[in-house]
Design a protein that fits this description.
Elements lengths: L13 H12 L15 E6 L10 H19 L3 E3 L9 H10 L3 H18 L15 H16 L3 E11 L4 E3 L4 E2 L2 E2 L8 E10 L5 H6 L10 H11 L2 E10 L5 E6 L10 E4 L6 H4 L2 H13 L12 E9 L6 E7 L10 E4 L5 H10 L7 E2 L20 E2 L10 H14 L3 E6 L5 E2 L1 E2 L9 E4 L3 E4 L27 H4 E3 L6 E4 L3 E2 L8 H4 L12 H7 L4 E4 L7 H14 L12 E3 L3 E3 L2 E2 L10 H7 L2 H10 L7 E3 L1 H21 L11 H22 L2 H17 L6 H15 L4 H10 L16 H4 L3 E8 L2 E9 L4 H9 L5 H4 L4 E7 L3 E6 L1
Parallel strand pairs: 1-2, 1-24, 10-12, 24-25, 26-28, 29-32
Antiparallel strand pairs: 3-4, 3-7, 5-6, 7-17, 8-9, 8-11, 8-16, 10-13, 11-12, 14-15, 18-23, 19-20, 19-22, 21-22, 26-27, 29-30, 31-32
Helix pairs in contact: 1-22, 2-17, 3-4, 16-17, 17-18, 18-20, 19-20, 19-21, 21-22
Length: about 800
């Protein structure tokens, strides 16, 4: 067929195209969410970044996922809220200030400006009218307001406690910020234990709710995240019972989940920091216990080699009256249960390991339902299952479950125990001995004690231009005009609190502020929250599972209980994207392999960078950034642009011989991408489908009519809009269309036309792909194999070879085995 007359082809100049639309879109309002709309709402959000000054390809992947979804939802007719802000307080700014003699506020604002410029260069569809920065008084005023509300309700309190101390950060860390015994920011810096007066939030009051409400999240949150949170919260049901110190009768309360095994207890083990140690240990033993505390700081007890020592004292079993030795063990935590355990080595693997190591007796008291009681000596391990209680006084012969119920009731009746529930999660320590954070709004008066700052005096402003040393004490202590204030109650001289808040406070509620970012009367208008919440899709890293994500769930429940909101969970759906590595290695500044977003924009264009991170792997999987992969995407976008520019506005003509084939592929592609956006988020296969469509358009270019070409180009531009917004907008203009492409209606597909008429058959030779052929569905075995043997690209691998056999799978593949 004679070729259609075409328009001149243009070279793909990504900079010219992208900068043109970047300039036009600077002040456009089409990313703004509507305040009052009859449309269905969709709140899509990526976790806000820390303003480090630069964006890299890992950031781009995160934002490209959310941006693609936002653009798709706009095209489906939703009122979309897609905001962005800055998690702007924190240690890096303070450390940079020390290193560079630059005030943290100046350093942070400079970085925000640089990162925002890159965001805008990439054309991410953020409603910048709703931008928040957590280091501004307009924001952190409400951190202080929430603290006062929690103080009123008994959810905020101060106590002296052993806390995790990072010597490099020179501040306290929450338990969740200690990873394998080291600081979460300095993975080679062991965390120490220090006794300090600290402010805590009673997240433990919500432990049961945090667990129970996970039922609302199942199916919408990754099971991996829910499992991590369940394990971190660590709910255990059992009983508390009092052993007594043999010499004095002082109670030693232990928590156990298996009170049915208490007659098999052969020692009691105290945590190294247990208060009783002040009484039962001499100076050398106390030093030994202190060394244990420091050595296991922040580590999971299960990962610590179990060590202990005998105190020289004994404890009395409240059920049997027997005396058992009292030990110190490094694996017993003061913060879990009561800080004391009864060791039952015959029925607990940890206890068995410890007692065998130190020669402590093993006494079996539970037998299998259909078996005999284990004999000692000779036991090779603990029997940890339920069974039948033996050698346990009046409870002998009872099933384990029944014995637990009766034995706990017995302890309760006689006043030496009770049923109890304990949690692994501990209250959230929020005090930080650093400058760049939200001042804690309390005043310490020598007469009145701890006095809240009155609400009408908020915000307590963080002073500027102060000396920052990182010396392990808050620099605010040296700012006398900040510290020395009158008591709000009595008017006498008092001192302002100088600790600042953990910066996870800032990120625990920021997504609510987006809904009403300029409110100066309250954190937000509850009516705005009622419309937008829950977040429909939240996107961020799995590393925040027991940090930001659990804190934000706690804050949501607290805000519900003070009457601000009605929802109990912040996000209906959560997506955790995979990490981006570079050339096979994890990106890090020390390796010099961090892939800069600004460099990518200049070299390949932002559309290429977006398309690469979405195409290289499913979004939940790791992506390896490789230059040759980016070059391949760049060539593809160039192919699309060249086809569009030479065929846009082509004169009409008679129907082409390949019209139906092209239309079928077009509608199949629309169906595929629509289904993936709605269900699976397989953006990599979406882009692969677009590539296949473009291949068909190239192959059939001379055989399709102008009308089908125009339809294909229009719908191709619409399908590319979520992934490559600049190129799709340029094609839209080339086609003579007006308005932003992503505000057009998403293309619909004809289900009948999208039905495949042919099966794609993979042709293999000795198991390796050599060609693809297309045959009508249901083609018989003989005809299928005949066509496969004639496949053009397979011929070089068949010539001169002996065909051993041909294996065929109808409608799928043919494998030709040759010698």
């Amino acid at each position: 067929m004679k070729a259609h007359p075409q328009m001149p082809e243009k070279p793909y100049d990504h900079n010219q195209i992208e900068l043109k639309w970047h300039e036009r879109w600077q002040d456009a309002g089409f990313y703004r969410a509507e305040e009052h709309s009859a449309k269905p709402k969709f709140y899509v959000l990526e976790m806000l970044p820390y303003p480090s000054g630069t964006l890299h390809i890992g950031h781009i992947r995160n934002y490209s996922i959310g941006d693609a979804l936002a653009r798709y939802k706009w095209m489906r007719g939703y009122n979309v809220l897609h905001p962005m802000g800055w998690d702007a307080f924190g240690l890096p700014a303070e450390n940079a200030a020390i290193a560079n003699q630059t005030p943290p506020r100046e350093w942070t604002r400079h970085n925000i400006a640089a990162m925002k410029k890159t965001h805008r260069r990439f054309g991410f569809s953020y409603d910048w009218d709703r931008e928040v920065s957590t280091c501004e008084p307009e924001y952190y005023r409400w951190n202080q307001w929430f603290f006062l509300k929690m103080l009123e309700r008994g959810l905020a309190y101060r106590k002296k406690a052993l806390v995790n101390w990072c010597p490099q950060c020179a501040t306290v860390l929450a338990n969740e910020q200690v990873v394998e015994g080291c600081c979460w920011r300095h993975e080679d810096t062991p965390v120490e234990q220090r006794a300090l007066e600290q402010w805590f939030l009673k997240i433990t009051d919500y432990a049961d709710q945090l667990l129970d409400d996970m039922a609302q999240l199942e199916g919408g949150w990754p099971e991996r995240v829910l499992t991590m949170q369940r394990n971190w919260i660590g709910r255990s049901e059992g009983a508390e019972v009092d052993f007594r110190l043999a010499e004095t009768g002082a109670p030693i309360r232990v928590f156990t989940t298996r009170v049915d095994t208490i007659f098999g207890a052969t020692c009691v083990i105290l945590a190294p920091e247990h208060p009783l140690n002040e009484t039962v240990l001499d100076a050398d033993a106390k030093a030994r216990a202190k060394a244990m505390v420091d050595a296991r700081a922040g580590r999971d007890p299960g990962d610590v080699e179990k060590e202990g020592f005998f105190t020289g004292h004994y404890a009395v079993n409240p059920y049997s009256g027997d005396q058992v030795p009292l030990w110190i063990g490094n694996f017993v935590l003061m913060g879990y249960g009561t800080g004391a355990i009864m060791a039952v080595p015959a029925h607990d693997e940890r206890d068995f390991e410890f007692c065998r190591k130190y020669g402590i007796a093993v006494l079996p008291v539970i037998r299998p339902v259909e078996g005999e009681l284990a004999a000692e000596p000779g036991m090779q391990g603990a029997f940890c299952d339920d069974g039948v209680v033996e050698n346990s006084g009046e409870w002998s012969g009872l099933p384990s479950e029944e014995a637990r119920r009766r034995m706990a009731a017995f302890a309760d009746e006689r006043g030496f125990g009770k049923n109890a529930v304990t949690f692994r999660i501990k209250d959230w320590g929020i005090s930080r001995q650093r400058y760049w954070g939200t001042p804690i709004p309390v005043i310490h008066c020598p007469d009145c004690g701890v006095v809240p700052v009155p609400e009408d005096q908020l915000p307590v402003i963080l002073p500027e231009r102060i000396a920052i040393t990182g010396a392990g004490r808050s620099p605010l202590e040296n700012v006398l005009e900040f510290v020395n204030v009158p008591c709000p109650k009595c008017g006498r001289a008092a001192r302002r609190e100088t600790d600042t808040m953990d910066t996870f406070i800032d990120s625990s509620w920021y997504f609510y502020r987006y809904c009403d970012p300029h409110n100066d009367k309250m954190p937000f208008d509850p009516a705005a929250i009622a419309y937008w919440f829950e977040i429909d899709q939240y996107i961020g890293g799995v590393e925040h599972a027991i940090l930001h994500l659990i804190y934000s769930r706690f804050f949501t429940k607290m805000m519900r209980d003070i009457g601000l909101i009605r929802n109990s969970e912040p996000a209906r759906r959560l997506f955790t994207q995979g990490m981006v590595i570079a050339e096979g290695a994890k990106m890090s500044k020390s390796k010099g392999n961090v892939v800069s977003a600004d460099v990518l924009a200049e070299k390949f264009g932002t559309d290429t960078a977006r398309m690469f991170v979405l195409f290289a792997a499913p979004p939940e999987k790791e992506v390896d950034w490789r230059q040759e992969g980016a070059e391949g995407i760049y060539r593809f976008l160039g192919r699309v642009y060249r086809f569009a520019t030479r065929n846009a506005g082509r004169a009409g003509g008679a129907p082409g011989s390949s019209d139906r084939k092209v239309l079928r592929k077009l509608h199949q592609t629309i169906q595929k991408i629509t289904d993936d956006f709605e269900t699976r988020w397989h953006f990599n296969t979406c882009i692969a489908s677009v590539m296949e469509l473009v291949n068909v358009l190239y192959a059939e270019e001379e055989n399709i009519s102008a009308a089908v070409t125009a339809e294909a180009l229009e719908k191709l531009a619409l399908m590319l809009a979520p992934f490559a917004p600049y190129l799709s907008q340029e094609i839209w203009e080339e086609l003579g269309k007006d308005g932003p492409v992503f505000r057009q209606c998403w293309p619909s597909f004809d289900p009948e036309l999208a039905k495949a008429e042919e099966a794609e058959i993979v042709v293999q030779v000795n198991g390796k792909l050599r060609d693809r052929i297309y045959v009508p569905f249901g083609t018989g075995k003989e005809e299928l194999e005949r066509r496969a043997l004639a496949a053009e690209k397979a011929q070089p691998f068949l010539a001169g070879k002996q065909i051993v056999k041909v294996i065929s799978v109808p409608d799928k593949l043919v494998n030709i085995v040759v010698k």
